[in-house]
Design goal:
Blueprint: E1 7-9, E2 16-18, E3 22-25, H1 27-40, E4 44-48, H2 50-54, H3 58-66, E5 72-75, H4 78-86, E6 93-95, H5 104-109, E7 113-116, H6 119-132, E8 136-141, H7 153-168, E9 172-178, H8 191-208, E10 215-219, H9 221-226, E11 234-237, E12 256-261, E13 264-268, E14 273-274, E15 280-281, E16 286-291, E17 308-311, E18 314-317, E19 327-330, E20 341-345, H10 355-362, H11 366-372, E21 378-381
Parallel strand pairs: 3-21, 4-5, 4-11, 5-6, 6-7, 7-8, 8-9, 9-10, 10-11
Antiparallel strand pairs: 1-2, 3-12, 12-20, 13-16, 14-15, 16-19, 17-18, 17-20
Helix pairs in contact: 1-3, 7-8, 10-11
The structure holds pyridoxal-5'-phosphate.
Length: 382
């Protein structure tokens, strides 16, 4: 974790101020987004807080979502679930991506639900449960058509029968069944209906094997917004909670603000080349500011030619290439000076630039921008 925020005296010696790059998470925005998704599905809402809550802080996002309409939490690795338990969260947590030799005993001991995508996973999990005299809560995971994660249809019936045998031995309890859609942001894509059909077939097959998975979940953010037929008993929503709408249909609130102080300011003459490769040259005499954030902190280098930041209420274009640790901006005639706060990311309505702006500049997904932020940023909530 980053060190605590340092409090310094300002240059004037009067006003104490926070220093260094900051990532501020607006929990009210996460609460509002959670309510939006809870209204959009008649079933339960699982708040997906993998990848440290999409870079917004897993425990903070989880706590806020649970207080505003979510009833369960979802993560990929068991370790992420254990961290939520250590943070004091007692809601159901599902972990769906683990190696065969994962620490299943720790998962069972912490009362985590785990997804099972294969016979090997099931056998290892049942073995661990038998050894510690516990019973694992399982969601069987079917590949609904992405060929990414989950059991293939050809393995599904045998997996269901094996899971039923392990149930009868008291080693597991199949409480859920999950799948995931690969093209849900495009409602016209034919794979949505084939995925739904495959999921329905998987459920029939599970029931025929004697299983009664009470929680059945196929929809993530996009399908929750666009495809009511995919909703079943629960939706797993991650991106939407932090204000990312891959469907472009819904008003959500961005929750991130990233700021950093100007740490150096210099005046340069027209024709001065700036940064690695001298890819930018000052077209006129100007003042340049140095922002202590770079691609190691998650600012994509590919945005260099187009990005801007905001300081003293005006746009300051990025001048030259974003470096590993720092970025130069052209302050123009803004009058900005050392110590001024630069807005590197601001939610829509704040004057920005937004996560979506950074994604557009760099050809990345907004998901990649928010999960890439890190490095020296100190995260706090507001
Ligand atoms: C990441 C993930 C989700 C959440 O998806 P969003 O589109 O961010 O809501 C749901 N299910 C699975 C299996 C995932 O990997």
């Amino acid at each position: 974790m980053s060190p605590a925020v340092t409090v310094l005296r300002s240059v004037q010696g009067t006003r104490p101020r926070l220093t260094g790059p900051q990532l501020v998470v607006d929990l009210d925005a996460i609460a509002a987004n959670t309510q939006t998704f809870a209204r959009r599905t008649p079933g339960e809402l699982m708040a997906v807080v993998k990848a440290d809550g999409f870079g917004h802080g897993a425990a903070d996002v989880a706590r806020t979502a649970l207080a505003h309409g979510a009833s369960q939490l979802g993560v990929t690795a068991i370790a992420e679930g254990l961290a939520l338990r250590a943070a004091g969260l007692s809601a159901p947590v599902l972990s769906w991506l683990n190696p065969v030799d994962a620490d299943w005993a720790a998962a069972i001991g912490a009362d985590l639900d785990v997804a099972v995508p294969s016979r090997d996973h099931l056998d290892a999990l049942a073995h661990a449960a038998a050894q510690i005299g516990g019973r694992a809560r399982v969601h069987l995971h079917l590949d609904a058509g992405m060929a990414r994660d989950g059991a293939s249809p050809s393995e599904w019936a045998a997996l269901c029968r094996a899971a039923r045998r392990a149930e009868l031995l008291g080693q597991v309890q199949v409480v859920g069944m999950m799948g995931h859609l690969g093209c849900a942001d495009d409602p016209a894509h034919p794979s949505n209906s084939t995925g739904r059909t495959r999921f329905a077939w998987g459920l029939m097959t599970a029931r025929a094997a004697g299983l009664r998975p009470a929680q059945r979940h196929l929809a993530a953010t996009s399908a929750t917004l666009l495809d009511p037929l995919s909703h079943h008993t629960m939706s797993r929503v991650g991106a939407g909670l932090v204000g990312i709408d891959p469907t472009g249909t819904t008003e959500l609130r961005g929750a991130l603000t990233v700021t950093a102080p100007l740490v150096e300011v210099r005046s340069v003459l027209a024709g001065t080349p700036v940064g690695y490769g001298h890819s930018w040259t000052a077209p006129a005499a100007t003042r340049l500011g140095l922002v202590p954030l770079g691609y190691a902190d998650g600012l994509p280098r590919l945005a260099s030619g187009e990005a801007w930041m905001r300081v003293r209420g005006v746009h300051a274009p990025v001048a030259g290439r974003i470096s590993m640790d720092m970025t130069v901006v052209d302050l123009g005639s803004s009058g900005a000076d050392v110590g001024d706060e630069v807005t590197v990311i601001g939610p829509r309505g704040s004057g920005g630039p937004t996560v979506a702006d950074w994604a557009g500049w760099s050809g990345l997904l907004p998901h990649e921008i928010v999960t890439g932020l890190g490095g020296r940023l100190v995260r706090r909530t507001a």
